[in-house]
Amino acid sequence: MSPSHSLPSLSIIGAGSWGSALALIFARAGKNVTLWGHDATHLQIIQDSRLNARYLPGIPFPENINCTTSLEKASEAEIIFFVIPSKFFRSVAHSLAPYMLSSSSKTLISCTKGIEPTSGKLMSDILGELIPTAAIAVLSGPNLAGETARGLPAAGVLGSREESHLALLQPIFHQTHYRAYTSTDVAGIQLGGALKNIFAIATGVSDGLGMGENARAGLVTRALAEMTRLGVAMGGRPQTFSGLSGIGDLMATCFSPQSRNHQFGWQLAQGKSPLEIERSMTMIAEGLFTARSAQECARKLRVDTPIIDEVVAVLDQGKSPQSAIKELLGRRLRSEEDGLKASKDNSL
Q: What are phi and psi of 224, to 5 degrees?
């Protein structure tokens, strides 16, 4: 496909699996893409070999993906995708800010699925706080990086509070294999993407214990109810959790062995410790950090989150995966409709 000179320049902050997959989406559509990473050696290998063997082995990188470790260079683009793990998100945004504050024509799109510990802030809130001159948008959905990087079809939701802003951003995905829908529910889009990682850990535990397809379906269904309860209490719209960034992402992450969070739960079920699993993984399982943040938010808002609570108990309190599943099955009997309410009643 020939380059489209009418579209804005693009940078991707984060050279992991999803950041690299996004770079491939746009490069294959003829755009020049700047890919930023913190590891100079890794970036040089990608630049020279045209492969990101660490995260996306075997997938060639077009020549129009240019790697850099300079945030100043990355900041020159008109649209900047922020694809940094949540635990490093604030520090990288803080480092980028000095290069951004002199311009009011930049757009930052957060693609990170997490909730900041202690503050409970979403990634868009952090960007707005540190880089107030930029327009802020978000992108989320059922997007397994390996499939997207191989050019398989995918869809997601592009979010901004301003519909006029979405009208300018959506065309950058035109004529790619990624279909971007739009929404003004910035909070709901992010919360669906963040919370589903926790439930993927729980599903990985269930699968790792050999509990079967019925158990998995039941767990994912109850996870959707829990996601919606907490997500609405935190400012999202109920209908968003029935869309791509809610149930769509939940299904992809809970059902796929490619999901790092599902794999994390599977290994927990095999008796490995959270620290042991974390140290063995090349990529970060966001659910490990989001679980604690989500539980803090739920307690402040008095929202019932039994699955999240059990995941945190396994991760931080030494509870066995078998005991956590038994605890969920042993909860008091009640109506399904009660569990679907976005209620602040802790007795639900």
A: -65, -40
